[in-house]
Amino acid sequence: MKKAVVMLLVVALLAAVLGFTPVRAAGGVVVQMTIGSTKATINFKAVVLDQPPIIENGRTLVPFRFIGEALGAKIGWDPVKKTVSYVLGDKNIVLTIGSITAMVNGVETTLDVAPKILPTGRTVVPVRFISETIGAKVDWNSSTRIVTITMAATLDVGIVLPTKDEPRWIQDETRFNDALKTAGYSAEILFSQGSSAKEKENVEALITKGVKVLILCPQDATAAAASADEARAAGIKVISYDRLIRDTKAVDYYVTFDSIAVGKAQAQYLVDKATGTKNPLYLYAGAATDNNAFLFFEGAWDVLQPKIADGTFVIKNSSQAVALQGKATLTRDEMGKIIGQVTTNWDFTIAKNLAEANLTIAKAADKGNVFILAPNDGTARSIADAFGDDKDVKSYVITGQDAEIPSVQYIIDGKQSMTVLKDVRTLVRDAIAAAVDYLTGKTPEQTTTYNNGKIGVPAKPSVVVTVDKSNVKAALIDSGYYKASEFTGLP
């Protein structure tokens, strides 16, 4: 946080001089001031000060009130105690006029020289104090009498997302950038492109750049633990985004939707559409390395299992699921056995190949009017294409999630039955809110915890909405989530 405060300090100084509102910057900043002169430069651009720096007892003092007011800090003056203070972010600094003892967050700090009030009425403080308190590098050139304050480039928030190959994550990138820009924080967003090794490389790059908060959507829930551990060791707050990082204590917060509720919504849709008995049921799941895949499946199994037991559905593509169909509650290992047979690995091509392989070995009697549990929209489209091309499939009901634009069009066109809207605007807002809380020394709101195998990770899950052709316009267009112009044939 220290470097970020320095950055704000310098940018605010420029703002006050030139008369504009300070905005948090992401790049490095160099400030130069000449003793006894009102001329200064910020990033080598000239500005004019209303109080020149001075030297007293061999120490350089700079205007404190000017910097504080320009920065927007809450400044206080106690005429009885003769103290001046400012509060900014996680720093609370109190100085006593004429005293070499200052208080920083309640801790005594000894100054090289006491602050003083000049005849002009301005309070000045030693520049070394500013440096040591907020992390700036200060250089003094005795020949030119120039003080140089330098701060290296830094970032507030680092974000690592799984891939650029899915519309969902591209949408998240745009929303993160817009939200952080509006909030006034600097950030960098990197993509792992389906590789845990690339993910680790991305996290290490962000650590090197000095991020204060890491928002990480893990490619592999367990493999990502090493990256979380590295970030924690560097003093960085770790927010697990959308997918839970497992088997580490180095996760501070989890931003998610209610993943079990997603699976329940998908399964309930299939149940509501089913009539009679012996309806062919095809199960597909996400990646076995993704904790969410287990939560989605857990929610779906809770709803489907009673209907499998009473004969409404007959599982057609998983011997493991058939072997366990009498169990209302599955252990993680048992779910893992089923998911291992029906995993799409969140990959469109794998999903289609698996569906085609299932259909190739299935008998005509195993097809007809089928019901398909697909884990998300991308895989749903691929699986739907495979089932739609099979001449023995008379009709199908297929689930999805994420409300991706291509899948919404599929729903409108009758090629995908439903999706679960997880309003990523809400998820992004929740992630940004948590990051800002950490940046400002607060604790994010918590309504529950999720067990990641090591700890209960604090979280505040967001609600989900079932969307099909009957409510697609109300849920996605009227709500402002998408524009009507992005689709054709809206009901």
From TrEMBL:
Example of a GO MF term: carbohydrate binding
Domain of life of the native organism? Bacteria
Q: Where in the cell is it found?
A: Cell envelope
- Is-annotated flag, keyword Hydrolase? no
Q: Does the keyword Signal apply?
A: yes
Can you name a GO cellular component term? outer membrane-bounded periplasmic space
- What range(s) does the Copper amine oxidase-like N-terminal domain occupy? 42-149
Q: What is its main location?
A: other
Question: What InterPro entries does UniProt report for this protein, alphabetically?
Answer: Bact_Solute-Bind_Prot2 (IPR050555), Cu_amine_oxidase-like_N (IPR012854), Mao_N_sf (IPR036582), Peripla_BP_I (IPR028082), SBP_2_dom (IPR025997)
Tell me where in this chain the Periplasmic binding protein domain is found: 157-442
Keywords attached to this entry: Signal
Q: Which segment of the chain is annotated as a signal peptide?
A: 1-25
By sequence similarity, the record places it as follows: Belongs to the bacterial solute-binding protein 2 family.
- Spell out the protein name for this chain: Sugar ABC transporter substrate-binding protein
Organism name: Candidatus Cryosericum septentrionale
